[in-house]
Amino acid sequence: MNRTAHTDQHGTRRRAPLHSYAMAIASALVLAGGLGALAAFLREQDGVLTGVGLGIFTFPPLLALSWLVLVSRHTVTPEPHAEESVERQWLDRALSGGFTDVLTACGLALTAVAVSGVEISGLATLTAVVVLAMVDVVVRYVVISRRES
Fold this sequence. Notes:
Elements: E1 4-5, H1 18-42, H2 47-70, H3 72-75, E2 76-77, H4 86-116, H5 122-148
Helix pairs in contact: 1-2, 4-5
């Protein structure tokens, strides 16, 4: 990702309006607090502790997301040819291959579970699918980038 942060093409510093910074922080606080409150409400034991913990641990990624949406459009100038970069092509190929691998693995696992009659929890299953997808794409990207660079 080649992006020029905080300066425009003339080298002058770019800043977002002050309300964008405030909205980014406020929206992250509200979203993290809402998720924490929902967790506290749904949890039978230690609801408050769970809610506070979830709120604290989801605040940084939510702040990054709200910063990306509300502030970066004012401070970051996108690279005009970013979609044409070789790294983007490698990522597209890794994502495409990763999707095929995950779909195949899920089909095989579904067949095995249906034939064997083994019960697997939804949490374990979804965790395995997400981890498989992430690891698969990272490995594919590294292999493609090393092979072609």
